[in-house]
Specification:
Blueprint (H helix, E strand, L loop, with lengths): L3 H4 L7 H8 L2 H4 L5 E4 L6 H12 L5 E5 L3 H10 L7 E4 L6 H4 L15 E7 L4 H4 L35 H7 L2 H11 L5 H14 L5 H11 L2 H6 L6 H11 L2 H11 L4 E11 L2 H14 L20 E3 L9 H6 L7 E7 L4
Parallel strand pairs: 1-2, 1-4, 2-3, 4-5
Antiparallel strand pairs: 5-7, 6-7
């Protein structure tokens, strides 16, 4: 039986820009480089990366992670030609340290400096957006789920990160609803939307994406609806998804730990689609690339922090106009790249 998931396709965002970064001159000199794709998806970036290295006579290795079981299954099929070089795991990218010991390589035993290249693509894949049953999109009516792992994998985190969008919108108090929509969705109508959700669920439970989208649409003032560039539900759906999947918490944990597991001269490339994510990546890259983190008013350095990386993108790389025309979902993407410095 063919499902919507079987028909879903995904276009890799900023593909050439990512490959150019990960296929650095240093990495081309390594006999068998290691790469981490923390958001494997359908493996578009990683498969092309392995193919490009293969064309150079280099057998690159991949550690691929994804907490979405449907995506991981599709990626496994797409990477079948490189099965001996690929180590794929059902995991969120923030838990990559738990995965490293499971990789069958002598280099992983040191636990440090394994990866010559690291990639995160923080966007929601077409596999998730285009399948109504996943409940990510207001464009198709489906159950309010929005969990990246579909709620089928065991999670260590406490709630709210195990609840569905349905549970969230039907049980959360007004103040929390407003805060989530305001913070993660950056929607100036957060208060009106939160109140509309509270009022609607008093009559009947909010069960599907169309119900929620209609509630949000009517919560918007008529003038705002008439002039809005996107559907009024866009920001709220994004906010709920980010909250219940703990997307900013995941990113923060990953950034705190990944540099230690990146090899000298290794590349870290991160594609973000939200201003909060991009700001977090920008600040962490700046911290790595700064020799002193002391407040400017101190007469001398007391932090003893050493510069650990070099930023390769002073400003984020954006998709070209042609790419945006071919793949409109890429329009908000921002790519930042940093290279870990070898010890001086």
């Amino acid at each position: 039986m063919t499902t919507n998931a079987d028909n879903a396709t995904h276009v890799s965002v900023l593909l050439e820009e990512v490959l150019s970064a990960l296929m650095s001159e240093e990495n081309k000199k390594i006999k068998s480089p290691w790469f981490l794709d923390g958001t494997l998806g359908l493996a578009g970036h990683s498969k092309t990366l392995l193919e490009r290295f293969q064309a150079l006579g280099i057998d690159a290795n991949l550690c691929g992670l994804d907490r979405d079981p449907q995506a991981l299954s599709r990626a496994t099929t797409n990477l079948e030609a490189f099965s001996k070089q690929c180590h794929l795991f059902p995991s969120d990218y923030a838990s990559f340290e738990d995965i490293i010991p499971q990789i069958n390589t002598d280099k992983s035993n040191s636990f440090k400096g394994l990866f010559n290249g690291v990639l995160l693509d923080l966007g929601v894949s077409s596999l998730q957006l285009d399948v109504a049953e996943r409940g990510f999109s207001y464009h198709q009516d489906g159950p309010l789920n929005m969990r990246m792992d579909m709620g089928s994998l065991l999670q260590k985190e406490a709630p709210p990160h195990t609840e569905s969008a349905k549970t969230f919108v039907n049980r959360t108090d007004f103040d929390t609803l407003k805060k989530v929509i305001e913070e993660f969705g950056e929607d100036p109508q957060a208060g009106r939307i939160a109140r509309a959700i509270i009022d609607a669920r008093q009559t009947k439970s909010i069960e599907n994406t169309k119900q929620l989208a209609d509630i949000i649409y009517l919560a918007y003032p008529p003038k705002w609806r008439a002039t809005a560039r996107n559907h009024p539900a866009t920001r709220t759906f994004q906010a709920i998804r980010m909250y219940i999947n703990d997307e900013l918490g995941q990113l923060s944990k990953f950034l705190d730990n990944i540099l230690a597991h990146t090899a000298d001269n290794g590349i870290i490339a991160i594609i973000s689609f939200h201003s909060l994510e991009d700001r977090m990546v920008k600040q962490k890259f700046k911290e790595w690339a700064t020799a002193c983190l002391c407040p400017p008013q101190l007469p001398r350095c007391v932090c003893h922090h050493k510069k650990e990386a070099q930023i390769l993108t002073k400003k984020p790389t954006l998709p070209s106009k042609d790419e945006c025309l071919i793949n409109p979902r890429s329009s908000s993407a921002k790519l930042r790249i940093v290279q870990k410095l070898a010890p001086q």
